[in-house]
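Q: I have 69 residues here and want to know how they pack in 3D. Can you give me a structure?
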Amino acid sequence: MIKFIKNFRKDENGAVTVDWVVLTAAVVGLAVAAYGTIQTNTQQLAADAGAIVGAESIGLTAATGSTTR
C-alpha cells in the first residue's frame, strides 16, 4: 500500500491533463469574449452605415436618365 501511494504521488500524468484542460478553457473563454466584442461592434457599424445610406436621396429624371442629388 505504501508503494502504491509513493507511485501515485510521483505520477504526473493527471497533472498534465489538468493543465491542458485549464489552458483550453482559458482559450475558449477568450474566444467567446472576443466574439462578443466583435459582434457588438459589427452590429453598431452596420446600423451606422445603414443610417447613412438611408439618409441619402438619389433620384432619376425621366427625360435624361441622369441622377440628381
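Q: Anything worth noting?
A: The CA atoms of residues 60 and 67 lie 5 Å apart. The mean pLDDT is 84.
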